[in-house]
Amino acid sequence: MKSICVYCGSSSGNAPNYEEAATQTGRLLAEEGITLVYGGSKVGLMGAVADAALAAGGTVIGILPKALQEKELAHESLSELHIVSSMHERKALMAEKSDGFFALPGGAGTMEEIFEVWTWGQLGYHKKPCGFINTNGYYDHLLAFLDHQQKEGFMKLEMRTMVQAAETPKQLLELFRSYEPPAVAKWVKPEEL
Fold first, then answer.
1. Whole-angstrom Cα distance, residue 172 to residue 165?
2. Whole-prediction pTM
């Protein structure tokens, strides 16, 4: 695995554990020689993950829409900073440059990004692993809801298990290293549940 995209909050959240998880993630990727791909901002968990990777000698690629660069959110010390015209371009380029996708705690944007790449994986557009770093149980309710979706027949079990979760970035990276994409079709028929 040469590169991992990290989706996370542009704020730091209320618990210090969230920023520590971002710092651990950036440091781990740098120490493992894995390029960090992320949203290009200098604020919140986004800034923390990038700063930690850079401090540990890692390569960091940021991808930022021009509208956010103009609000002075761009991290100016990255290995590469790509300025794109839209959020759609941002997400497509992040996905193209990444071999896997981590979601640290974050808000609606983080959810949208990880769910989109997970959906692309379900549809067979890529075979890259996706997962949540579940710091402080941040994603417990979401993971329970995903289990509920599967039990209610809106997702095959194989598609549910595509998205992984771990308490630490190191644990999630180990899961990624043994990841095998499902070999079943996404489409669900009631008799197959």
1. 7
2. 0.93
